[in-house]
C-alpha cells in the first residue's frame, strides 16, 4: 500500500489509466513472446521440415503412395508449416485452384492469429504518451493554481508539486509507449516473415502436387521440389515416411 500511495502521489489522477495501459501491454507482450519462443524451439527441432528436405532431395512424383507417406509424416508435428502442408496434402485430389483458395484462407487465419493483440499494443503505444501529456497539463494547472493563491514571493516548494506531477506522468507515458510500440512492430515483422516463408513452401508443394517441376522466370528457374538441374537416377527414389 505504501508503494502504491507513493506512486499515486507522483502520478495523480492518471495513476490508474497508466497502470491499466502498462498491465495490458505487459500481458500481450508475454503472450506473444511465449508464442515466439514456441515457434522458435519448434524450428530448431531436428525433425523440423525434414519432410521438405527429403522431398527436395528425391525424385518422387506426386503419386498416391508418396502423398500418403507425406500425410503420415506431417501429421506428427504441430509447427506452422507442417500443419499447412498436412491440410494441403489431404486435398491433393482437388483441383489446383481450389487448393490455392484453401491455402489462402488458411494463411489469412494464421496471419490473424500471429498478429493477435498487436493492434491493441499499437493503440496503447499511442495512448500512453498522450496520457503523459495530459498529466503534464494537469501538473501545470496545479502549479499555476498554487501560484495564484500565493500572496508572497514564489518559492521552489510551490513549484515542485505541479512540476513533479507534470514530469512524472510524461516519463511514465513514454516508458510505457516506447517498449510497447517497439514490441508491436517487432512481433508484426516476425508474423509477416513467418507467413511469407510458409506461403513460399506451400506454394511449391501445391505446384508439386500439380506435377510442375519448375517454372522459368526471366533467366532463372523457380525450383519446386524436384531438382531438374541434376542428373536423374535410373530409378526414382522412394520417399520414406519420416519418423
Report the helical percentage.
Answer: over 70%
Oligomer status? single chain
C-alpha termini separation: 57 Å
The succession of helices and strands, N to C, reads: HHHHHHHHEE
Q: Give the CA-based shape.
A: rod-shaped
State Rg: 29 Å
How is the biggest beta sheet arranged? 2 strands, antiparallel
The total count of strands amounts to 2
Q: Tell me the structural class.
A: mainly alpha
Report the uncertain regions: 215-222, 227-243
Report on this model:
Helix 2 packs parallel to helix 8 (156-209), helix 5 (80-90) packs antiparallel against helix 6 and helix 7 (118-149) runs antiparallel to helix 8 (156-209). By secondary structure, the chain is mainly alpha-helical. It contains eight helices and two strands. Strands 1-2 form a two-stranded antiparallel sheet. Mean pLDDT is 80; it is low at 215-222 and 227-243. The longest helix has 54 residues, at 156-209. It has helices at residues 2-11, 15-43, 50-57, 64-74, 80-90, 96-114, 118-149, 156-209; strands spanning 214-217, 220-223. The two termini are 57 Å apart. A hairpin with a 2-residue loop joins strand 1 and strand 2 (220-223).
Amino acid at each position: 500500500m505504501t508503494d502504491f500511495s507513493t506512486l499515486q502521489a507522483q502520478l495523480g489522477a492518471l495513476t490508474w489509466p497508466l497502470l491499466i495501459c502498462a498491465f495490458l501491454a505487459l500481458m500481450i507482450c508475454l503472450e506473444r513472446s511465449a508464442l515466439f519462443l514456441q515457434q522458435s524451439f519448434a524450428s530448431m527441432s531436428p525433425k523440423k521440415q525434414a519432410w521438405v528436405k527429403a522431398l527436395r532431395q528425391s525424385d518422387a512424383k506426386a503419386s498416391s503412395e508418396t502423398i500418403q507417406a507425406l500425410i503420415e509424416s506431417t501429421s506428427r508435428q504441430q509447427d506452422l508449416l507442417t500443419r499447412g502442408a498436412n491440410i494441403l496434402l489431404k486435398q491433393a485430389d482437388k483441383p489446383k485452384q481450389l487448393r490455392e483458395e484453401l491455402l489462402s484462407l488458411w494463411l489469412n487465419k494464421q496471419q490473424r492469429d500471429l498478429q493477435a493483440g498487436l493492434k491493441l499494443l499499437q493503440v496503447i503505444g499511442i495512448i500512453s504518451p498522450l496520457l503523459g501529456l495530459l498529466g503534464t497539463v494537469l501538473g501545470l494547472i496545479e502549479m499555476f493554481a498554487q501560484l495564484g493563491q500565493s500572496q508572497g514571493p514564489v518559492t521552489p516548494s510551490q513549484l515542485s508539486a505541479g512540476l513533479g506531477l507534470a514530469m512524472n506522468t510524461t516519463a511514465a507515458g513514454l516508458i510505457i509507449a516506447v517498449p510497447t510500440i517497439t514490441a508491436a512492430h517487432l512481433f508484426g515483422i516476425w508474423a509477416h516473415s513467418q507467413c511469407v516463408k510458409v506461403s513460399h513452401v506451400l506454394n511449391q508443394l501445391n505446384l508439386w502436387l500439380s506435377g510442375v517441376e519448375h517454372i522459368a522466370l526471366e533467366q532463372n528457374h523457380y525450383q519446386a521440389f524436384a531438382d531438374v538441374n541434376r542428373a536423374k537416377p535410373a530409378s526414382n527414389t522412394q520417399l520414406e515416411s519420416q519418423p
